[in-house]
Amino acid sequence: MKKLVNLALCYDFDGTLAAGNMQEYGFIKNLGISADDFWNMSAALNKKVISDNVLRYMRLMLEEAKKRNIQVTQEYLFECGKMVVLFDGVRDWFKRINEYALSRDVVVSHYLISSGLEEIVAGTGIADCFKKVYASAYMYDDNGVAIWPARTVNYTEKTQYLYRIKKGCLDIADNRTVNARMPEKDCPVPFSRMIYFGDGDSDVPCMSMIRRSGGHCVVVYEHGKCGAYEQALQYVSDKRANIAAPADYSEGGVIDCYIKKVIDEFATENK
């Protein structure tokens, strides 16, 4: 019986699967302020106390919601997630690419690694497409109201989750296995069989690590966004990404064709 090849596709969310930041579609809009105002307030806080940008925006969300008597619950964030507009082709991408891969004796698993909120991702309708979602999240009081960050994912922490995927140690409570030595040949999905999708500086550590290890990286840019195309080309020039592609996951598009080509290469190597 032919042995199937395991391939991991790992995604950032904001700017990669949807334009802008996930908080802007529902949560910030409901605050009655602009996205620019919210992020400028977040940046201003850093001038008072140097802090992690993820912790900072998560606290600011709770503070601004409290001022407006908005209770931030899991259900509320889930509803905000329903408002997120995904890039073209994203909704049917996962099923389509899985079916293509299986036709080539390749098994694809999808993973999300995002600095955004797990609770908002849950409402987007694609959370179930991922084998595992690694994202920031809140802890809640006895009434189900968010009170404090339970987990954050910043640009360097993202690499931790690539190691978890590599070693098959997906439970974030398991710190022993992820730090244990594991020969490359024993890893369920080595970096060389990973494809990382990102769009900006927060993805550079992941892209650099995957690319150096023989994996593939796709830097996604939003068509028409000022400077996005030039920045994406720079990542390719700096050898942090293999290809720059417009943010369109539709069948026959640049991303679709490139990933199918990579799948074909792995299938050929397995013959």
Number of helices, where a helix is a run of at least 4 consecutive DSSP H or I residues: 11
Order of helices and strands: EHHHHHEHEEHHEHEHEH
**Which radius of gyration do the C-alpha atoms yield?**
19 Å
CATH superfamily of the largest domain, please?
HAD superfamily/HAD-like
CATH architecture level-2 label of the largest domain: 3-Layer(aba) Sandwich
Instruction: Give the structural class.
Output: alpha/beta
Largest sheet: 7 strands, mixed
In short:
This protein is of the alpha/beta class. It contains eleven helices and seven strands.
Q: What do you see in this structure?
A:
There is one protein chain. This protein has 271 residues and is of the alpha/beta class. It folds into two domains: 5-19 and 85-137 and 150-269, Rossmann fold; 23-81, no CATH class. The chain is 41% helix and 18% strand. The protein contains eleven helices and seven strands. The protein has helices at residues 27-31, 35-48, 53-67, 74-81, 90-103, 118-122, 158-167, 175-179, 204-212, 228-237, 254-269, and strands at 5-11, 106-117, 132-140, 146-151, 194-198, 216-221, 243-246. A seven-stranded mixed sheet has the order 4-3-2-1-5-6-7, with helices on both faces. The radius of gyration is 19 Å and the shape is globular. The model has no long low-confidence stretch (mean pLDDT 95).
